[in-house]
Amino acid sequence: MNNHYTDINSSIIDSWVENNWKWGVPISHETYEKALQGEWNVLLTPTKPVPKSWFPDFKGRKILGLASGGGQQMPIFSALGAECTIMDYSQKQLDSELLVASREGYSINIVKADMTQPFPFEKESFDLIFHPVSNCYIEDVFHVWEECFRVLKKGGLLIAGLDNGVNYLFDENETVLTYRLPFNPLKDPELYQECLNKDLGIQFSHSIEEQIGGQLKAGFMLTDLYEDTNGSGRLHEYNVPTFIATRAIKK
Questions:
Q1: Are 46 and 230 in contact (CB under 8 A)?
Q2: Does the predicted TM-score (pTM) go above 0.85?
Q3: How far apart are CA 86 and CA 157, in angstroms?
Q4: pLDDT tens track for 177-205
Q5: DSSP bridge partners of 128
């Protein structure tokens, strides 16, 4: 098995973006213009917009979009007056950020980096980290929470979208219990090859203990959360929550 699974995921996500992946299509000029006028929303999970009450005043805030490339959220925050940095390991996702920034005439700091490694930022660099569902592509999420805590200022916010693991139990049609949890291809050669054959990337299920408990162990205080569904498919039809969004603060 390839030890550099994040490089595989980077390449696969690049290919998804080239094929109009939902999370890789940048916002339109019209959407940006509406944000300038105060009409906006952003997603952490498939269907539910993040409550605006979760955010501080954006003016002058330093925001890190963590694995949040694609030109979807950072343009909104930039339009609202924030100073944005995007960190992603997919070049195509970063290219989408540059496309929107160039089109709309704002500046953004672009950083290509692997979030399984130490983040390339000084401690207490940011007021807010916006982290949509993406840590399903890495094995160790606790490292991410520790690094988020380190680079946030005191009183800073971590706003994150999390997969609760349910999606990894089922077959493609979401009708048959097929896989055991935790879903970890690095510990199962057959599963690893299956993920490559199906163009899924090397993905991982994570428990609530890892996702929310990990934030708490890193030092965050949880202030709010909500659940969401896939937005389509059989689990969605039965209203099965498969994602959680969390708001936490560095005290």
A1: yes
A2: yes
A3: 16
A4: 999 999 999 999 999 999 999 999 999 99
A5: 63, 157
